[in-house]
Backbone:
DNA sequence: AAGTGGTCTAGACCACCAA
DNA sequence: TGGTGGTCTAGACCACTTC
């Protein structure tokens, strides 16, 4: 029997507010709700979807936290014009994000291998003999590398992963098997190594952001560890603090 | 007449959930609610405060976003053990934050001057002839400088500011005059200049975080612009993304 | 003045956690 | 199994923005 069966797709039904949020998201993508314009009012949406205003407010809060909407008191909820600036409040993966950009995007897998590594095993809280996929990807936007990602996934958890899959959306694939609960991220500034300098066309005097990320399922199982290097010419970290 | 009268203390009453949140905050500080332990349940709190559970949930969500509480599904809401790691989800000022630390903290003002500066005027969207306070402060924790802050405030907005005030809490003072709505922050990695290197006891090979922050009142008036340099030996940026 | 989001009430059922 | 947080209903009044 597959050892991770218990953690696949928790029995928790998808809440209505998330279903609605995803629907609104789709409409934003399709330009049914154009950028910079007002959404229907919360009262209208609640009528349209046949739910209470509280539920709609939940959907909207979710989309605000995702960085897709913006609230204006007394005026309405607005579709945010998306920028390429990476916002720490947002939890959009690269492929999701680039749907909202007009520029062409793609992902290139430049390394794909099975490894044993005691350091990685330790991070996953597993025995040393476990095998991992190590996948190094370059994310392009308009023919420029915007970030470099190294992902570690446990082989037995995602046995049929492939280069083709990883050149599409990692999370689309991963979410067929598990439900993501949260990820723990840490960001530090580093001096890029030679490889990274070459890829980003920068020198050693240009510090860059380096992010590590530990992904957890709803059952609190670690399903991925990843490292990200950001192109300083493209990304900046901006965020809004309320109150 | 004072020119900013209209924006002082908007008529909006402080909502109940915020009053309750501040009360809970106080209890956490006084160790009435010890770190790492469970808060009373939402139902008990709603009874205690004589409000509905929805209102309590609002208070708790606010404290979670401030980084003071942590939710555990099916178990309860817990007081987070605070660390010195700067969390991007948190909006705690230094003096607030250091209350939760056992170490001794203080703020030293090392520059305090009135300036005219066209660049700063531009940032505030004001005429060039406006005068600003430029205040450079060092924040100490256990006799170590944890960050360097340069704050710009419009003189006519905060006429009676002083070194003494700035060695206490900036926001405590500022909030006597205005109500803070939000701040726009941007963080980039930089190579520290000589001054900063000396203060932090680091060399030019150690990149650091540099944050700029633009503070807005509830009337969307810019009330401060500040620059922050973080000591890399103490701070790291970590955050949790949900779903 | 009309419409909007912000807050709040008083309930309810569910899945999850610990005992 | 009992208590917890997560979600949801069906209302209500408020301050704020827009006209």
Residues:
């Amino acid at each position: 029997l597959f050892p991770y069966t218990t953690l696949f797709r928790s029995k928790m039904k998808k809440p209505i507010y998330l279903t609605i949020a995803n629907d609104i998201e789709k409409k934003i993508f399709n330009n049914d709700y154009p950028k910079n314009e007002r959404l229907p009012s919360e009262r209208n949406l609640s009528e349209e979807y046949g739910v209470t205003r509280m539920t709609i407010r939940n959907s909207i809060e979710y989309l605000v936290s995702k960085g897709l909407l913006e609230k204006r008191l007394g005026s309405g909820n607005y579709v945010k014009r998306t920028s390429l600036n990476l916002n720490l409040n947002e939890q959009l993966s690269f492929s999701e994000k680039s749907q909202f950009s007009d520029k062409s995007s793609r992902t290139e897998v430049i390394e794909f291998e099975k490894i044993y590594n005691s350091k990685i095993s330790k991070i996953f809280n597993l025995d040393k003999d476990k095998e991992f996929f190590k996948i190094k990807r370059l994310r392009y936007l308009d023919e420029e590398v915007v970030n470099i990602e190294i992902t570690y996934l446990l082989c037995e958890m995602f046995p049929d992963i492939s280069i083709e899959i990883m050149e599409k959306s990692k999370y689309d694939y991963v979410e067929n098997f598990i439900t993501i609960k949260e990820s723990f991220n840490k960001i530090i500034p580093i001096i890029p190594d030679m490889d990274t300098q070459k890829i980003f066309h920068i020198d050693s005097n240009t510090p860059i952001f380096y992010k590590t990320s530990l992904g957890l399922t709803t059952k609190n199982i670690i399903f991925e560890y990843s490292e990200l290097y950001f192109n300083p010419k493209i990304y900046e970290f901006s965020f809004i603090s309320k109150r």
About this structure: The longest strand of chain A covers residues 105-115. Chain A touches chain B at residues 65, 88, 91, 180-191, 205, 207-209, 232, 236-243 (CB under 8 Å).
